[in-house]
Structures
1.
Amino acid sequence: MSGPPVVVVARVLPEPGLGLLEAAATVRSGALAVDRDELRARCAGAAALVTDVIVRVDDELLEACGPGLRVVANYAVGYDNVDVAACAARGVVVTNTPGVLVEATAELAMVLTLAALRRVGEAERDLRAGRWASWSPDGWVGRELRGATVGVVGPGRIGGRYAELVAAFGADVVYTSRRPRPDLDITLDARRVALDELLGASDVVSLHVPGGAGVVIDEAAVRRMRPGAVLVNTARGSLVDEAAVARALADGHLGAAGLDVFADEPRVSRALLTAPRAILLPHIGSATREARGAMAELVARNVLAVLCGEEPPTPVTP
Ligand code: GLV
């Protein structure tokens, strides 16, 4: 006799997603701290597995789920934590949550851009440490976004929205993209260039490509950036050689770095923690009430669609 399908939530899934799943399935949720052995045991017999950016979905976890697994629904737009090929080999559909976190993540990239240009992190740290002696004409002087050149690496949905936001502030936009983006060229007067040209031309370089494609900003790329330029990363930590960035902050080549993502989250290297002019955030790109709720709902809709034998709203193609 078959009962309701089992949905295993590897960590936690907020409302309204959880309620939608509980109405149709037996849901076994975990906790924020993941114990791999406990997770493997809980996964047995799952028809659906809900994961997030810090849950590694590999062959071993898929094996623990067993042959009834039909969908891995990632509570994130990025899915470099999921071995999509291994899922495909087992006939398991993978889904993610694109679209609904565009505004939140583009806004956070804006926050980091403006904070870096206006030296907000340093100024706040100095105030709290009692280093604000008096108003001074040359205290914490930054630069304006208006008139700056902003290089958008990967103007997909999030990068494209960020490009619109910086253009609305009066910045000139250049971008790298595999395909031409005549819409950006026309509406923002943006220009598609090669990465090397972007690095040499930009006052701000902001990353919006998926993780898993290797290091985009390595030592040579950092050194190709303009002296005093700002690096913003709201995509994935694996895109950046963090030691090279920390060195370039320390020796003054980089003006600032605004980083929301790190190679070994939640650990942040000592080099970055102690680097001057680094603004470091704990991976909060999609952390708005609007985005997180919509992501949870989309996860549930993806799971339920697959379990009903329908095409999920946002599948990942292998
Ligand atoms: C968060 O990093 C996401 O990919 O949604």
2.
Amino acid sequence: MSRKIESVNYGLEKIFEGAQDFLPLLGTDYVELYVGNAKQAAHFYKTAFGFQSLAYKGLETGSRDTVSYVLKQDKIRLVLTSPLNSEQEINKHVVKHGDGVKVVALWVEDARSAYEETTKRGAKSYLEPTVEKDENGEVVKAGIYTYGETVHMFIERKNFNGAFLPGYVKWESDYNPEPVGLKYIDHMVGNVGWNEMNIWVKWYEDVMGFVNFLSFDDKQIHTEYSALMSKVMSNGNGRIKFPINEPAEGKKRSQIEEYLDFYEGPGVQHIAMATDDIIKAVTDLRSRGIEFLSTPPDEYYNAIPGRLEEFSHELREDLKRLKGLGIMVDADEEGYLLQIFTKPLQDRPTMFFEIIQRMGAKGFGAGNFKALFESIEREQELRGTL
Ligand code: FE2
């Protein structure tokens, strides 16, 4: 593993000066998953991850074909949607991909302009600008396709003050497990096919005005058996970060290939959720039954003090506790970060969550990639997919 990667993490502000502002993004609005059974999935995300009930749309609200449960934790909104009959389009998505992310919705000032600017730069339309209204006001929605069948929806909500979107009712539940302290989406990673990473990097540059601010090649991200390449795309204000991975040749099948095989195409690989107390969050998540990738070996933890010293940072957390919980540490010039990855969250070995706490570092844990991938390979071995 090259230690030079971290030094690529130069001042972001300088890089963002080059970003174009034809698509100003205020933040992530919501992430929508198409799932086989939204009611049960909602129970899982509430119980295990501490999401709160926010809004609902289904038979009771006049939605005859689909049902959606909206969950919230601080700034993170998850929407879980299932079809209510066999005619519904969503069935095809679920049959093909299993449970997975369909929509990465972006909060904008002007959805019409976002749609116009991106489609004129080559984006494939998913939904033309559409106004939805109810007694709480109106929302303008528009959507474009990104990799695979994944969609970016632009959401303009300045004239709306309801629970979520028009058509949804507030979901009052008697069952409200405590949040675990997840605050916002730090980044969302997409897996794309062989030799497609640069196509999608260019797409995010040309169509969305994003910039590529970090790159890792297969010489940097590899284990004895497998390799991948990754480029991190960011919008102009740095609020939206989408790393994009593609598989690279190795002795055995990489985790990206495993994902592409089981998702049957490109899609969202993981959602990284930020917390400011990862020790508490991971302690809670473990006690609620969330399984994480196996803890790296002793040598990994023994090397951490040296790695922090290299950049003159002091670890504020107790290393023994981090090790006990399997939390990994990485450092760069600006600080360090703490992170951990769940096992896949549905039957297919596809999407998972990352829990991340940034202590100044702006990277993505490149120093942990090797330990992380070796851990994933142990799981692949068990699944017979390495
Ligand atoms: Fe990540």
